[in-house]
């Protein structure tokens, strides 16, 4: 209904609109920045565990096959968390879900450290990884849903940059792990200190996430039913996007699980050098995600995904087949850049319709994280026979499948319509700006660019 006062007094309407905008907008930068920080905290926690896998292996005195079984504990917890994540988010909301997930993730790190180093207990370390995997996946889905909602609210691509923040967290976590390994810091002490950092992040950062009373299109949100959330699994596009995540998560996850250990066992590096190789991979992924935002905006999701798959295949094959330090580093860099965009673009594609974002992100992430469930034991068992690096040839085949499924990620639904509207608005604003010589559109686009660190959609 139109307000007659506003109709007769355009100035008052403009003032009211400005006031409404002023009250609604201040939450968005804090919401966005907190979400970036949550991505970084989650990446820091994951890299803290991953980079210390060789130390966990040595403390427990187990072979690669048993390491694979141990990592399967994390994978099993992750799958349970992913299958329940959409229901947890529907029950608790994003803010409380992320509070709980980060704190429980910290508890998992402490249990892993005590189980492996202090108690030398495989079962306790396994339980720690179950806890860590469960909470990590709840956090993963929750932060990606928040990221997609922010993308819709701000009408620009941000998820690759948020995943770059995750990679930056892994760079930090991996770098710290390499440093403490060099100085022989006790594993349980390292993981406990890291856990305190993650817990503090979990207690503070989600406070800046708003309660979503309406979706980014401005329509009131409706509580999804269990039937609605389960029906997502029957959508062909959702399942195809899941295949993209299956291959590209395997490309990323195989480095997380096995790169440091493969460098130690198959290339003869020490623990610190193996952790450093993993850190190189995470740096390459961070660069790929920051630069990838520009690439995606120029050429679109599908070409970006196919190009990423090609780079990942070339890099991975180089690492597997060529035993040369310089060539190995080059291969790891290509592998990291190639693996950088698959996961965030798959998540973004799943969230094209914000009303079903949580359920679809949960579904495709579950398919993608299936790699983390079956991958570690399979690669560990194969690696026992032919070496860990040769076992990674399995990953190459999965990346090929991801490339074939890439057309499913083409923009659709609300995101596609928003893009068309944004393009039309930009053209009209440009015309009016040219005519007037000033124009508010220039101010709006300038603010948008600086707000995302230079990544406008």
From TrEMBL:
Biased composition regions of type Gly residues, renumbered to the chain: 448-457
Superkingdom field: Bacteria
Membrane topology: Multi-pass membrane protein
Protein name: Fucose permease
Major site of localization recorded for this protein: membrane
Region feature Disordered, mapped onto this chain: 1-20, 423-457
All residue ranges annotated as the Major facilitator superfamily (MFS) profile domain in the record: 1-409
Transmembrane segments: 34-55, 67-91, 98-116, 122-143, 164-183, 189-209, 230-251, 271-290, 302-322, 328-351, 363-382, 388-409
Compartments, record wording: Cell membrane
Single GO cellular component term: plasma membrane
Keywords, sorted A to Z: Membrane, Transmembrane, Transmembrane helix
Sample GO molecular function, one term: transmembrane transporter activity
Stretches with biased composition (Low complexity): 423-447
């Amino acid at each position: 209904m139109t307000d007659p006062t506003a109709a007769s007094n355009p100035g008052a309407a403009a003032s009211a609109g400005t006031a409404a905008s002023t009250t609604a907008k201040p939450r968005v930068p804090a919401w966005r920045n907190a979400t970036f920080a949550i991505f970084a905290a989650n990446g820091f926690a994951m890299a803290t565990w991953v980079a210390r896998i060789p130390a966990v292996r040595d403390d427990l005195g187990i072979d690669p096959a048993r390491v694979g079984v141990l990592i399967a504990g994390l994978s099993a917890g992750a799958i349970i968390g992913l299958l329940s994540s959409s229901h947890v988010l529907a029950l608790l909301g994003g803010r409380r879900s992320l509070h709980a997930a980060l704190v429980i993730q910290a508890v998992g790190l402490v249990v892993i450290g005590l189980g492996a180093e202090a108690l030398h207990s495989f079962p306790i370390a396994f339980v720690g990884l179950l806890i860590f995997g469960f909470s990590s996946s709840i956090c993963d889905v929750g932060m990606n849903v928040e990221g997609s909602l922010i993308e819709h609210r701000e009408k620009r691509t941000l998820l690759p940059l948020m995943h770059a923040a995750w990679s930056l967290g892994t760079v930090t976590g991996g770098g710290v792990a390499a440093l403490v390994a060099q100085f022989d810091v006790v594993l349980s002490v390292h993981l406990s200190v890291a856990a305190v950092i993650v817990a503090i992040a979990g207690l503070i950062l989600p406070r800046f996430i708003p309660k979503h009373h309406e979706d980014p299109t401005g329509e009131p949100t409706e509580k999804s039913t269990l039937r609605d959330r389960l029906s997502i699994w029957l959508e062909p596009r959702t399942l195809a996007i899941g295949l993209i995540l299956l291959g590209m998560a395997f490309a990323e996850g195989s480095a997380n699980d096995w790169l440091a250990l493969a460098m130690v066992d198959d290339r003869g590096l020490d623990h610190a050098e193996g952790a450093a190789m993993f850190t190189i991979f995470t740096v390459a992924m961070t660069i790929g995600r920051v630069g990838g935002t520009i690439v995606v905006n120029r050429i679109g999701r599908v070409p970006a995904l196919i190009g990423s798959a090609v780079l990942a295949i070339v890099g991975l094959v180089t690492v597997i087949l060529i035993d040369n330090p310089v060539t190995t580093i080059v291969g790891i860099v290509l592998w990291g850049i190639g693996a950088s965009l698959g996961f965030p673009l798959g998540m973004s594609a799943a969230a094209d319709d914000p009303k079903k974002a949580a359920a679809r992100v949960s579904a495709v992430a579950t398919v993608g994280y299936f790699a983390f469930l079956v991958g570690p034991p399979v690669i560990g068992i194969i690696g026992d026979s032919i070496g860990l690096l040769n076992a990674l040839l399995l990953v190459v085949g999965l990346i090929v499948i991801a490339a074939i499924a890439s057309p499913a990620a083409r923009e659709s639904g609300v995101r596609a319509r928003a893009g068309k509207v944004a393009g039309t608005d930009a053209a009209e604003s440009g015309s009016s700006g040219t005519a007037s010589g000033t124009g508010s559109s220039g101010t709006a686009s300038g603010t948008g660019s600086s707000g995302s660190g230079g990544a406008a959609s």
